[in-house]
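Lecture 7 notes: from sequence to structure.
We start with the chain below.
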Amino acid sequence: MFQPSTLNFLKELKKNNSKPWFDSHREKYLSAKTDFENFIEKLIAATAAFDDDIKELQVKNCTFRINRDIRFSKDKTPYKTNMGVYLSRDGKKSIFAGYYFHFEPGGSFAGGGLWMPTAPELNKLRQEIDYCFPEFKKIITSSSFKNQYQGLEMNEGQMLVNVPKGYDKENPAASFLKLKSFVSTKKINDRILTSPLLIKEVAGAFKALMPLVKFINRSME
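Predicted structure tokens for the same chain:
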């Protein structure tokens, strides 16, 4: 669970996203950062209970900086208005699938998978889905998965128009082979953010995603 002051800091930052304001409220930021890191330490332990790949992770290797990279962005606001963590083998810069928690008042969510992999990894995963489609389909239609997620995200920005080269358009897995990312997310209500139930809520979402994460990572090994 998070302290109400941590939520309040992020809300205030959203209204006052500038370096002078941030500098004058640095103590509040450091307090919020510590609160977030304490939660992530507990989340790592809860996730490692069902996924051994996570047990060696350290908080500093899986959390993201609050500073935005504005070099190539039209939006020049210097700070993110959320805090995020990616639990995956080798940490946040890993090429492997993992679990993501996005903490933002009014916009928190939990989930994960594999976001925009490079062509070699994507080709391996597509081949694995093609070869093992019954297994893949069973994972994303299981009751444990569907109780947490509505399915894989399949919006236009994450899909090819046509089935990738080398695959028949009548392939039973065609709609999934067109995907460029393989992720699922579920919203986390604000009222849970300050509740002791938060760990159970997020870890439960991660656990339901674990078979998909393992399937994806197997394709890359």
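Points to note: The two ends are 35 Å apart (CA to CA). Residues 6 and 34 are 9 Å apart (CA to CA).
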